[in-house]
Amino acid sequence: MAFFDLVSLILDNLNRRKARVGLTATGVVIGTAAVVILVSLAIGLQRNATSSLYGISDLSRIDVYAKFVEGPVVSGGGNQVPPSQKLLTNDTIAEITALPGVKQVIPRDYIMGESIFKFARLEAYMGILGVGGIHDLSEIGIKVQEGSLELGKNSIIIGSQIPTYFMNPQFRPGQEPPTPPDLVGQTVKLTLRKYDENGQPITRSFQLVVVGLLESTSGEEDYSVYMPIETITTYNEWLMGRRINRNKDGYQNFVVRVNDPKEVIDVTNQIKDLGYEAYTFQEYTQGINSFFVVLQVIFGGVGATALLVAAIGIANTMTMAILERTREIGLMKALGATNRDVLSVFLGEAAGIGFVGGLGGVVIGWSGGQILNVLAIGYMAGQAASQGGPPPSLAVFTPTWLPIFALVFATLIGLLSGLYPALRAASLVPINALKYE
Which of 230, 257, 279 is the last residue of a domain? Predict the structure, then answer.
């Protein structure tokens, strides 16, 4: 039987039983729509969660820290370091830089004592972060809201929340809190404080110019004060009362930037293999993505269960069709139709029911997802506004592959459901079929 003749016969047979085909296909429509909506919901929630998290941290960044180990450790420079810790030294910078995929290794250090900022009558207590290996914060992807990102001597760059830290030390209950000052271009006074052997305070002050205010990122940058690491080293040497040897004292931590975010996990594992502690934000996103993959499987399984029920309906419909058309099958065989032709006709009809139901389910599922998206985004936007969070970008997302997969899956379900009835029809003996009443 020619292919186009086969298709024409299948369409004619389906058209003769519109009501039965429609009712049977309805089950497939429900199952397919459930798969599309539920899986789209899980994907949308995943994308919304990960996109919110991606805005908090740089996915190409790895934070590296010294690691506590057992036994004595000797640094690359030949200096004996405390036996309980493998330090981050200058040799470590070269060691990590040599790893494939590493773009930058940025040493960082913090003030190792009490620091007080003063501006006019306002004071603020905060830590200062020293950054090395770069001359401009734009080199590590930080953006400026106002001023400059260039790290210079006797200057600082502040995060967006730093002005809110300045308070009036004479503040009394009932008074209005001071307005956060506009610090860009202003000179602030930094006072470092340490104590002698008698417990008496010793202070030293520096005049610093605020050259830049960073854009808000909802991350570490918002609460940081940046300076060159050389300046921080000078301050810490005064606070500690001795020279700092980086091969002996090490750095507080490194920020490692990788060329491709896809290589971050691999580079992190290599750094750990070198004997250091390494953390990346992608480790958290991997856990989140794994959770949502499981959620997609569960939601898809719910829809697949509905398709299974629909498959039973297709099998039942095709079985009844064989009983009603037994003499027709016998006549087809008497006129020269082979078992393969009969099998193809009934499999085609079953697959056709699955295809029609799948097509309707895809349309309804996609439309329902868009409606749900509008309603959910409206609700979540209200929640985010009341809690001060960012508005959601989407709640339901239907990727291109999902409708195609759902349609093919529904058609395949129909085909498999009609396999037994089709085999039964193909195996009928023509004489017995013609005698069937």
Answer: 279
Tracing tokens 């329902």 back to the chain, one arrives at 368
Confidence of residue 19 (pLDDT cuts 50, 70, 90): confident
Nearest-angstrom CA–CA distance, 300 and 298: 5
Q: CA 29 to CA 25: how far, in whole Å?
A: 6
Q: Is the dihedral of CA 323, 21, 303, 418 positive or negative?
A: positive
The CA distance from 312 to 287, in Å, is: 38
Residue 300, H or E segment? helix 282-324
Of 279, 302, 323, the position where a domain reaches its end is 279
Q: Which structure tokens are listed for 149?
A: 């990102």
Domain that holds residue 404: 3-55+287-435
List all residues 6 or more positions away from 397 whose beta carbon is below 8 Å from its beta carbon.
Answer: 40, 43, 44, 47, 373
Asked if 363 and 434 count as a contact pair (C-beta separation under 8 A), the reply is no
The residue with tokens 């079953």 is 350
The pTM of the full predicted model, rounded to 2 decimals, is: 0.60
pLDDT digits (tens, 9 = 90+) for 222-247: 888 999 999 999 999 999 889 999 88
Do residues 51 and 390 make contact, with C-beta atoms less than 8 angstroms apart? no
- Cα of 303 vs its chain's centroid, Å: 25
Phi, psi of 225 (to 5 degrees): -115, 120
Q: Which residues contact 76 (CB under 8 A, 6 or more apart)?
A: 89, 91, 92, 95, 247
SS3 of residue 173 by DSSP: coil
DSSP H/E element including 36: helix 18-54
* One domain for residues 229 and 163: yes
Question: What value does the CA radius of gyration of the chain take, rounded to a whole number of Å?
Answer: 35
> Residue 350 and residue 21: Cα distance in Å, rounded?
10
Q: How many residues does the chain have?
A: 437
Residue 143 in tokens: 């953006």
